[in-house]
Design brief:
26% of the residues lie in helices and 30% in strands. By secondary structure, it is α+β, with helices and mostly antiparallel strands. It has a single domain, classed as Peptide deformylase (Peptide Deformylase), CATH 3.90.45.10. The longest helix is centred in the last third of the chain and has 17 residues.
Length: 192
């Protein structure tokens, strides 16, 4: 059975506070409990359509674990996909900006089911974390991958994308904003 999403905008959602709490750092080797959380997170991620990333708090666990990937399909949906990435589980991930440039682009979230919006994020970041065996993983990410990692690490720090929407950024009901985004994408494709 798939774990349910914790929803910030649903007062009946179980364990909503986990989305606003700084997640607990994981110790190595992983405990059986942490391994089970990783398995549930990967299972939920793998069985969700249109899922680029997921963090443990989104399924009710206040642990510093994320999973993400950038599929080939993302290239047709976003202009800033510079590389595809297979599914990666990162434990205790963190990042820091490389430069001060930010890009505004659309974001949505399984834990914020009612809203979609434009969010400024660092264009390029350096990130690091550990695989489930405790091996260090690090790299430089730009564009959509950088946005994705920032979004997921934000979940581990009690932050949601709606917290980062600034003046001048558009946001609103998911279906309405999705229609705006699709119209803009089609217009950009139609330009010679």
């Amino acid at each position: 059975m798939l774990p349910e999403y914790v929803q910030i905008d649903d007062v009946s959602s179980k364990n909503r506070d986990v989305l606003r709490t700084h997640a607990e750092e994981i110790q190595f080797p992983l405990s059986d409990e942490d391994k089970a959380i990783v398995d549930q997170l990967v299972f939920k991620f793998s069985n969700e359509q249109n899922c680029a990333g997921l963090a443990a708090p989104q399924i009710g666990y206040g642990k510093r674990i994320v999973v993400f990937h950038v599929s080939e399909d993302a290239k047709s949906l976003r202009k800033d996909v510079y590389e595809t990435v297979p599914p990666i589980v990162l434990v205790n991930p963190q990042y820091h900006p490389v430069g001060s440039d930010k890009t505004i682009d659309w974001e949505g979230c399984f834990s914020v089911k009612l809203t979609m919006g434009e969010v400024p994020r660092y264009t390029t970041i350096a990130y690091q974390g550990y695989d489930t065996s405790g091996n260090k993983v690090e790299g430089i990410a730009k564009g959509f991958l950088a946005r994705l990692i920032q979004h997921e690490v934000g979940h581990l720090n009690g932050e949601l994308f709606i917290d980062l929407i600034t003046k001048g950024c558009r946001s609103g009901p998911v279906e309405e904003m999705r229609a705006v985004r699709i119209k803009e994408r089609e217009a950009s494709i139609a330009k010679p």
